[in-house]
Amino acid sequence: MKNHYDTLGLERNAQPNQIKKAYHKLALQWHPDKNSDFKATDQFHQINEAYTTLSKEESKTKYDKRLQTRDNLNDLLNYIKSQQEEPFLQYDTRDDFISQEDREFLRNFSNKQEIETIKKKRIRKKK
């Protein structure tokens, strides 16, 4: 999944001067007045949104925390899926670091994502 760092072509540990330099370079490249590509306006808006978030320390910190949380959830979901896909694997119960409550949360989270995906597909089909 693309994030603001990807949009600007940066690593997550990018410094403020790197963020500003990347923004200026991409803004000039994708500005609708300078680029006639039909994707230019959308790309320019994404670049602006990324810069607006990452250029301010407070919003960058909050964004970084959300990214880390998303990464952690993805890791947990991948772990659970791997256990469901390969039930024949034997593992020590001491390795089972996910509580029953966390499993329920992730199962519900996964189900909500699937429901949202189905809804989006239905909306696209109606158009």
TrEMBL record:
Residue ranges the record marks as coiled coil: none
Superkingdom in the source lineage: Eukaryota
Annotated SMART domains: DnaJ
Record SUPFAM superfamilies: Chaperone J-domain
All residue ranges annotated as the J domain in the record: 3-67
PANTHER family: CO-CHAPERONE PROTEIN DJLA
Protein name: J domain-containing protein
